[in-house]
Amino acid sequence: MQYVIIGNSITSVGCIESIRKHDTTGAITVIGEENHPIYARPLISYLLQGKTDEQKMTYRDEGFYQKHGVQVLTGRRVEKIEVEGQLLRLDDGSSMQYDKLLIATGSIPFIPPMKNLEEVEHRHTFLSLSDAKELEAELQPSSRVLIIGAGLIGLKCAEGILERVQSVTVVDLADRILSSILDEEGSARVQTHLEQIGIRFHLGDSVREFCGQEALLTSGKVVGFDILVLAVGVKPNIALAKDAGLAVNKGILIDQACRTSNPHIWAGGDCSEGWELLSGERRNLALLPNAYMQGETAGYSMAENEQRFENAIAMNAIGFFGLHIITAGIYQGEDLCFATEKGYKRLFIKDDHLVGCILIGDQVARGGIYTNLIRSRTDLRTLDFAMISEQPALMAFAQKVRSEQLGRAQ
Amino acid sequence: MKKIYVNEQWCLACHLCEYYCAYANSGLSDMVQALKDKPLHPRIQVEQRGTVSFAVNCRHCSEPLCLKSCIAGAITEKDGLIVIDQDKCVGCYSCIMACPYGALMPSESGVMQKCELCATNSHGLPVCVQGCPNQAIVYEER
């Protein structure tokens, strides 16, 4: 058996670990475009902030590939998947057969057109270790940094570099920050926190044109900068799959075992579009836990021990300068709001089920109890909802349920 | 594998498990020195309401969502024991987002901590269980 994985990140690790639970002998080859062994990609902002280093940010131990009997080709790009002959064409002219293939090509930066963008000399994206190192090499205490995008990537970048530069200014077309994961109140609270620490925002605005070291905004404002970071968003990297004729939408379409439309090919992680639990629709969930679990699910299926990943939901944990945020699910139905000076919580309830939550600041403790209610589709009538909405606790469950939770091997 | 299980009906809400846990993970050999006048950061926590109380700590799940969600690869499994490498942890709260039991929490230094069944400190066997006066938590195979 020849398993081949295109992509050398989180999904790939999930896949390797689950294949090896059931098939200890099949050959596994990983082809990674980056010139690094596996690393914890979301840690690149922590690297710039000095909270980790390259040694610590290895996602798995040094002996990982060897222990799992994996051959790794780094710095190698797959140029074509020939589905007829189950063959990969690589950029060095070589080719490789596969019996079972996982596409885990991740995502690529989405860059909207901006006039004269190509003429900006110090221009970066912020998705890979190389991106982080290239950005770091240019940072000076006198640097004025302009970040386009007030989402997860842009703001983590801002946090990572703020202490090392003169100023960080963030521009976003949306009229509030983190608009993909927060409600208005949540956005406002986090924005206030970030502004107090020194980040400047121009929201509901966009770059009309770059002119030397100045960005002319649609509003008429002018922002001077030395370094530009493009962090508007990401899009699934589906070029290979599309070219191979696999069914794609925004991402590569997969079923609950992470199979694509081709019987010999699986996909998972940021490049894929699988079934989301709450909407009942296919969604591209470019989030780390999802990437791992899709890779794992694909690996089980590839090793012929099929398990279905049926409770994928959006969930995020992110923090900025000590203010932590946990969000999960969808923001629909009735809602309950709790606000304190140091925190904010909003729960969304639909048809007697918790479908979403936003937890900020002092409300994040034990947040996984809420996330689990969402993922497990727990009927809220089976527990003390008044109690659990106030504070996540196992106390709110029926005694019988709790004795299972705490008295049985999980 | 032996794990900690809860006998809720025997819990006295004495919170001794929390004290023993904080002591066991303090690195100090003297319990008084470890605990006196210091904020406690136990990895086991007693929930209490009215006459009902019970201790909650890591279940060492066979499908650990914390491990699968960890963005740093800091949480690993070895022979059923789920451990966190605090050197690798960056304190992102993903494990807190994922754990269905609310069994991870920030340590004094801000990175996450969890019950490791005293296998990774100098005690070797769960000190909370040894200190429980009423067998409300037990360490056994189930």
TrEMBL record, chain A:
It comes from the Bacteria. Its cofactor is FAD. Residues 321-364 form the NADH-rubredoxin oxidoreductase C-terminal domain. It comes from Sphaerochaeta halotolerans. The keyword Cell membrane does not apply. It holds the Pfam family Rubredoxin_C. Residues 1-295 form the FAD/NAD(P)-binding domain. This is NAD(P)/FAD-dependent oxidoreductase. The keyword Flavoprotein applies. Belongs to the FAD-dependent oxidoreductase family. SUPFAM superfamilies: FAD/NAD(P)-binding domain. Keywords: FAD, Flavoprotein. One of its GO terms (molecular function) is oxidoreductase activity.
From TrEMBL, chain B:
SUPFAM superfamilies: 4Fe-4S ferredoxins. InterPro entries: 4Fe4S_Fe-S-bd (IPR017896), 4Fe4S_Fe_S_CS (IPR017900), ET_IronSulfur_Cluster-Binding (IPR050954). It holds the Pfam family Fer4_11. GO terms for molecular function: 4 iron, 4 sulfur cluster binding; metal ion binding. PROSITE patterns: 4FE4S_FER_1, 4FE4S_FER_2. Residues 2-31, 80-109 form the 4Fe-4S ferredoxin-type domain. Keywords: 4Fe-4S, Electron transport, Iron, Iron-sulfur, Metal-binding, Repeat, Transport. This is 4Fe-4S ferredoxin.
